Amino acid sequence: MGQCVTKCKNPTSSLGSKSGDKESGSKSHHKKSGSTGGGGGHKEEPSSLCSKGTSELSNGTKASEVTVETPVIPAMMGEPCMDECLHRDGLSMLHIEELFGCYKDEQEDAILEEGMERFCNDLCVDPAEFRVLVLAWKFQAATMCKFTRKEFVEGCKAIQADSLEGICSRFSFMLLEAQGEENFKDLYRFTFQFGLDAEEGQRSLQREIAIALWRLVFTQDTPAILEHWLDFLAENPSGIRGISRDTWNMFLNFTQAIGPDLSNYSEDEAWPSLFDTFVEWELERRKREEEQALTAKEEEGRCTETECSPTTDRLETEGSRGSQTWGGH
Prior knowledge:
The protein is mainly alpha-helical. 51% of the residues lie in helices and 5% in strands.
């Protein structure tokens, strides 16, 4: 991932790190005063914070150990507060917040289109590829080309990553996870909501966006009927303008229940009417293709016969010309 390294890869290298160079406290050192003429007492240096003090009395005995627990303030001591900065999985919350800050919009507390493009570029992925859709699914993003702070932070916690390298390393696991039957069903249904324009209050997907998202979400396991379905939508014989949530959800069931040849499709089942239209369109298309293939084969056969007997054809032609000539005299 050397090519993915940017200034945002590790926003603050010291955040969340454990320092082994300095201990949080030190033992107190006691100095006994000499027998100088000034006085017979002894002087002690003040002990450090969060330290255990063990003092030795003048008669040689040790006083009982007393532990003084004083909270260490990170800003004063220069060390991170582990309870606040580390998630229970060992993730640095400060790293996640800093990473979000690298891409967030200057006006809005969210990563918008420009920041999303830079984020994907630093992850070495195309914004329009399947891995980005899966990442948005894990982040539970409500809108395309946008991550709110909450979505980003909670998403990083969900995939257990607090850096660009961490996110990149989780892609293979996320792709494998998305192949599970229940997980894919969840991803599939998420994709519909993800494609809606929430600000416009859309309740159905625009036809062009639905086509693109169907092709995208089936990247890893493409149904045999998918391209024909998308061709049907592109040709749009029904004049449809949008895809409803019910149609979107039922299409997944359709691909699983109906065979590639559509032989087990029944109009009596409770499929959306658009599926009835598609099946009629597809069967008619296949019929035309078969007729065209048959015609092409017949033409090919005739051409083959002509090519195989050039001498006979030539003799027949010459004989015909001779008859015409003699007949004229």
